[in-house]
C-alpha cells in the first residue's frame, strides 16, 4: 500500500516519514483532544503525515486491577470526535474478532497487537472491514515471518497493510530492536518503528511494566537513519499519571524537538 491510501492523511506528498502518535489509552475526551491538538499543530508545521493513536480498551494487562478502559463505546466515540474535529485519521487496537466491525465504525486504521498477530481469525476479521490494518510484529517473531501476517490480510481481499516493529524479547525483562529487520519487513509492507514499546521492560515483579523513555530519541534517530517508513510514539502530557504504559511514554512537551531532529535526519538520508 501507499501512505496516501490512509483516509484523511495529510502531507502525504512531503516525502517525510509518517507518524502514529497519541496516548496509550483513551482516558477521557479532554485529554484526547488536548493531545491531538498539540500533535496536529506540530506535524502540520513539519509537514509530517499524521495518524492519531489511542486504545479504546486495554485487554493485555498483567494484573486484574490494571486500568483497562473507560468503556468501549465511550472511548470509540472520543476517537471518532478526534478524527472529525481535526480532520485526521485515527488508529486503535483490537483484541477480539467481535471488536473489528465495532471499531471500524469509528476509526480509519485497525491495529493488531503484537501478542495477537498470529491469531488468524482476528487478522482476517480486521482485513475484511476494508480498513487499513497495522500488524504489530510479535516480540517472539522474526522479521521474515511477518510476510505471512501480511499475506493473511491480502488473502482476505485487503491490500492495505502496515507492519510495526516493537522490539524483540531479550531475556525476561527487556526488548531489543534489531534494525536488520526493517528492510526485510519493508519487502512486505510499509514498516513503522514503535519507539516507545520497544523500550518497555515487561514482567516486573510489581506486575506493572517498566521502561526506558530516556532512550526514545536514540531508537527513533536510528530508525529514521535506516530508512523506516513511519514512527510510532505513545505520548502524554504527564506520563507519571498516565493510566497505562506511563513508564515508557514520551512527555508531550518533548515531542516537537524530537520530531524536528527526525525530520532533519530524514532530509539527509532520503538523498541516498
Automatic annotation (TrEMBL):
Q: Which GO terms describe its molecular function?
A: 3-deoxy-8-phosphooctulonate synthase activity
**Pfam families from the UniProt entry:** DAHP_synth_1
Named in its record, the pathway it takes part in is: Bacterial outer membrane biogenesis; lipopolysaccharide biosynthesis; Carbohydrate biosynthesis; 3-deoxy-D-manno-octulosonate biosynthesis; 3-deoxy-D-manno-octulosonate from D-ribulose 5-phosphate: step 2/3
The record's catalysed reaction(s) read: D-arabinose 5-phosphate + phosphoenolpyruvate + H2O = 3-deoxy-alpha-D-manno-2-octulosonate-8-phosphate + phosphate
Superkingdom of the organism of origin: Bacteria
- Annotated NCBIfam families: KDO8P_synth, PRK05198.1
Q: What is this protein called?
A: 3-deoxy-8-phosphooctulonate synthase
The scientific name of the source species is Namhaeicola litoreus
Name of the coding gene: kdsA
Amino acid at each position: 500500500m501507499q501512505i496516501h491510501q490512509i483516509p484523511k492523511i495529510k502531507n502525504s506528498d512531503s516525502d517525510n516519514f509518517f507518524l502514529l502518535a497519541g496516548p496509550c489509552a483513551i482516558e477521557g475526551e479532554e485529554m484526547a483532544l488536548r493531545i491531538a491538538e498539540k500533535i496536529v499543530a506540530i506535524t502540520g508545521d513539519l509537514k509530517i503525515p499524521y495518524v492519531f493513536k489511542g486504545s479504546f480498551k486495554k485487554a493485555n494487562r498483567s494484573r486484574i486491577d490494571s486500568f483497562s478502559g473507560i468503556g468501549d463505546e465511550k472511548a470509540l466515540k472520543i476517537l471518532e470526535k478526534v478524527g472529525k474535529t481535526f480532520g485526521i485519521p485515527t488508529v486503535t487496537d483490537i483484541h477480539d474478532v467481535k471488536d473489528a466491525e465495532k471499531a471500524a465504525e469509528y476509526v480509519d486504521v485497525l491495529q493488531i497487537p503484537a501478542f495477537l498477530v498470529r491469531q488468524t481469525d482476528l487478522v482476517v476479521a480486521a482485513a475484511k472491514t476494508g480498513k487499513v490494518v497495522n500488524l504489530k510484529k510479535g516480540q517472539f517473531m522474526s522479521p521474515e515471518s511477518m510476510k505471512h501476517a501480511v499475506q493473511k490480510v491480502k488473502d482476505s481481499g485487503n491490500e492495505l497493510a502496515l507492519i510495526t516493529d516493537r522490539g524483540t524479547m531479550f531475556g525476561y525483562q527487556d526488548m531489543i530492536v534489531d534494525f536488520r529487520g526493517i528492510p526485510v519487513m519493508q519487502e512486505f509492507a510499509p514498516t513503522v518503528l514503535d519507539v516507545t514499546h520497544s523500550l518497555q521492560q515487561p514482567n516486573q515483579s510489581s506486575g506493572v511494566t517498566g521502561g526506558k523513555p530516556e532512550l526514545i530519541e536514540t531508537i527513533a534517530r536510528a530508525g529514521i537513519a535506516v530508512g523506516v517508513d513511519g514512527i510510532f510514539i505513545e505520548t502524554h502530557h504527564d506520563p507519571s499519571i498516565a493510566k497505562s504504559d506511563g513508564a515508557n511514554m514520551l512527555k508531550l512537551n518533548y515531542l516537537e524537538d524530537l520530531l524536528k531532529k527526525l525530520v532533519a535526519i530524514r532530509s539527509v538520508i532520503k538523498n541516498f
